[in-house]
């Protein structure tokens, strides 16, 4: 993640390599220059109780790697399997693009990019589940 710029709102919290960091009272920017730092905005974090749909479960598993709670090498295979399962259901071109990006990110060890690609699928999953339940 070399060269990442984080723009933080007042009091916003982020997790960097397992440490929670809280911004002060003003907006600020952090420049992350360490390659492969594991970073997660806590406002984007999925609570374990919220990991109740297929896409949210894969996002949560990816989040565990970023938080340091799951070993990247151990998680890689499971993430790839779960992304493949999602690709069996989400077959539209836009979803395929996001799933391909997530797969490539996992293969290259870029778990934040994987999470970003998967989070883009959440609104679509919400719409599909809403239609199914109505």
Outline of the structure:
The protein has 134 residues and is α+β, with helices and mostly antiparallel strands. The protein has helices at residues 54-67, 72-89, 93-107, 111-119, 122-133; strands spanning 4-8, 13-16, 19-22, 28-32, 39-41.
Helix content: 40-55%
Q: Which structural class matches the secondary elements?
A: alpha+beta
Q: Strand tally, please?
A: 5
Strand order of the largest sheet: 3-2-5
How many domains? The number is 2
Count of DSSP-assigned helices:
5
SSE run: EEEEEHHHHH
Q: Would you identify the regions where 5 or more consecutive residues have pLDDT less than 50?
A: none
The 3D shape can be described as globular
Q: What fraction of residues sit in β-strands?
A: 15-25%
What does the average pLDDT come to?
A: 91
Largest sheet: 3 strands, antiparallel
* Rg over C-alpha atoms, rounded to the nearest angstrom: 15 Å
Distance linking N and C termini? 42 Å
Explain this structure to me?
By secondary structure, the protein is α+β, with helices and mostly antiparallel strands. It is built from 5 helices and 5 strands; from the N terminus they run βββββααααα. It has 2 domains: 40 residues, no CATH class; 88 residues. 51% of the residues lie in helices and 16% in strands. Strands 3-2-5 form a 3-stranded antiparallel beta sheet, covered by helices on one side. A two-stranded antiparallel ribbon has the order 1-4. A hairpin with a 2-residue loop joins strand 2 and strand 3. It is globular, with a radius of gyration of 15 Å. The model has no long low-confidence stretch (mean pLDDT 91).
């Amino acid at each position: 993640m070399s060269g990442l710029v984080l723009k933080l709102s007042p009091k916003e919290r982020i997790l960097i390599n397992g440490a929670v960091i809280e911004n002060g009272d003003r907006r600020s920017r952090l420049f992350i220059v360490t390659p492969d730092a594991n970073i997660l905005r806590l406002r984007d974090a999925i609570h374990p109780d919220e990991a109740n749909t297929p896409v949210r479960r894969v996002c949560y598993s990816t989040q565990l790697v970023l938080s340091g709670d799951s070993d990247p090498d151990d998680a890689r295979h499971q993430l790839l399997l779960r992304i493949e399962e999602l690709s069996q259901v989400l077959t539209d071109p836009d979803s395929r693009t996001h799933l391909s990006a997530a797969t490539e990110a996992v293969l290259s060890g870029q778990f934040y990019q994987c999470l970003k690609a998967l989070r883009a699928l959440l609104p679509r999953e919400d719409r599909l589940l809403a239609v199914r339940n109505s």
